[in-house]
Amino acid sequence: MHIAEGVLSAPVLISSAAITVSGCIPGLRKLDYNNMPRVAVFSSAFFVASLIHVPLGPTSVHLLLNGLTGVILGWASFPALLVALFLQAVLFQFGGITTLGVNTLNMALPAVIVFYLFSPLLKKKSKVLVFIGGFSAGFVAIFLSSLLVALSLFFTGKVFLNAARFIFLTHIPVMFIEGVITGFIVVFLRKVKPALLEGIVK
Questions:
Q1: Residue 130 sits in which domain range?
Q2: Does 21 fall in a domain?
Q3: What share of the chain is helix, strand, coil (3-state, %, to 5)?
Q4: Which tens digit of pLDDT belongs to each residue from 19-41?
Q5: Do the domain assignments include residue 44?
Q6: C-alpha span between 2 and 20 (Å, rounded)
Q7: What is the mean pLDDT of residues 123-148?
């Protein structure tokens, strides 16, 4: 779901970069020395998961784990995903430097949203409720990321309307897969390391 360079219009790139910087500010303020290992782990998980692409027509699909990152890191998802996307752009030419702002926004904003929507469920004693919270976080994060990518293309020009629609539709199966994966992971974490689900944002 990385948008390559040379596709988006300048207004979309500039506005997205500005919003990403605005999101990184509270994220960086929440970080301290004790939280850095947690941020590094989930930044690395996103880095690895989104490297495995399955080509599908003019686009490709892959896992993101931004829902899982969101419910664990909260606002710190912005700097965590920014670093991962920067390294992907530099090392593997996925995305690009000029599109770093929009790609980060499309991944990190849904992560923050699902943190506020579903992290309370992850603190419940019921495994069913914890799984539902995790599944919802994974599903909704991919849904919102796909929607933001589609909107980024649409606001660049109506010529990208079909591509935007195709990208969203091809990620519907990923929404369910990521939801299931996130659900099982948070149930496991709730059992072995419940402190991780407390989140950085208080």
A1: 10-198
A2: yes
A3: 80, 5, 20
A4: 999 999 999 988 877 888 889 99
A5: yes
A6: 15
A7: 94
Render pLDDT for 162-174 as a digit per residue (tens, 0 to 9): 888 888 888 888 8
Q: Which residues of 58-80 are buried (b: 16+ CB within 10 A; e: fewer)?
A: ebebbbbbbbbbbbbbbbbbbbb
Q: CA 31 to CA 39: how far, in whole Å?
A: 9
DSSP helix/strand/coil, 54: strand
What's the whole-number mean pLDDT along residues 143-148?
94
Residue pair 115/108 in contact by the 8 Å Cβ criterion: no
Q: Say if residues 74 and 112 touch (Cβ distance below 8 Å).
A: yes
Question: 56 by DSSP, 3-state: which?
Answer: strand
Number of domains the chain is built from:
1
* pLDDT recorded at residue 73: 93
Distances (CA, A) of 126 to 36, 130, 132: 29, 6, 10
Residue 3 lies in a domain: no
Length of the chain: 202
Q: Are 94 and 2 spatial neighbours (Cβ–Cβ below 8 Å)?
A: yes
- 4 assigned to some structural domain: no
| CATH number (domain holding residue 31) | 1.10.1760.20
Dist. CA 36–CA 95, nearest whole Å = 25
Helices (H) and strands (E) in the chain, counts: 8, 2
